[in-house]
Amino acid sequence: MKIVICVKPIKTEYVATNGLTGEAYVINPYDIPPILDALALKKKFSCEVITLSMSVPSSEQALVKLKAVGVDRVILLTDSKFSGADTIATSKVLYHAIKKLEDVDVIAFGNHAVDGETGQVGIGVSELMNRECILGIKSIQSFENNIVLMGREKDGMYQKIAVSEPFVAIYSDFSLQQLDYSLIQLKRAKAKGIEIWNCQLIGIEEENCGILGSKTKVSHIERELISKENQIIEGTVAEQVDRLFQLIQR
Question: Lower Cβ count inside 10 Å, N or C end of the chain?
């Protein structure tokens, strides 16, 4: 079985995790469960685990740790032509990269990224690949003869389901758990490095990625400034309560 997990490195400031202040990027918390699940599956069965990430070159320091914990191939999709991509353009880039990998049985996504909150890319990739998309996945339990047994949460209930390969699985949980690896494993991973793929390598036309391939455009970004002022309410208790109700009802 070949499992591809689409992983998003996010800026550390989005995750309140102690001990990571010196690192610019960390793995999106919603992507940790499918990574750990795939690695646990790899220990029990014969399967190849690959991660795909579309990000900037400086996110490599976070991605190399995936190789340290046992991911077979860690691939960073990075190109100036990818910048400014919305969910549609991002889905197309990932789709072309997955096609290049060939014979992928399971494509896994976290529910969403904490720096975007859209949760649309996994569904977008499943549509482009014409594959069934299974939501609410908790874990992949086993597989045999192209049938994968999984646990998922739906309508407040836990279900055990059997699905035929290939398909897209979107996990529901998130985790702030740090990846477990030794310094030796990290050193070896850094020595091997990760794979870097660009626009030309995955064979996507420039007009289908980045700003050119996006249906939504961000015309302006402005930081919202919330001003506060103090006010002393004087008078009798009854007058103070009355004035306080007036302020609350504004």
Answer: C
In the sheet that holds 2-6, the strands lie side by side as 157-164, 147-154, 132-144, 167-171, 106-109, 2-6, 48-54, 73-77, 195-197
Distance of CA 140 to the CA centre of its chain: 18
DSSP 45: S
pLDDT tens-digit series, residues 49-67: 999 999 999 999 999 999 9
* Complete domains list, the chain, with CATH: 2-220 (3.40.50.620)
At 116-143, the pLDDT tens digits run 878 899 999 999 999 999 999 999 998 8
Asked if the peptide bond before residue 57 counts as cis, ω within 30 degrees of 0, the response is no
Q: What is the pTM of this model?
A: 0.82
Tell me the C-alpha to C-alpha distance, in Å, between residue 67 and each of 104, 131, 154, 166, 171: 19, 28, 32, 24, 21
59 Cβ contact partners less than 8 Å away, ≥ 6 residues apart? 9, 24, 25, 53, 76
E strand or H helix at 42, and its extent?
Answer: helix 32-44
Question: How crowded is residue 47: how many other Cβ atoms within 10 Å of its Cβ?
Answer: 18
**Residue 177, token pair as written in the block:** 């758990």
- Within 8 A by CB and 6+ apart from 100, the residues are 197, 201, 202, 203
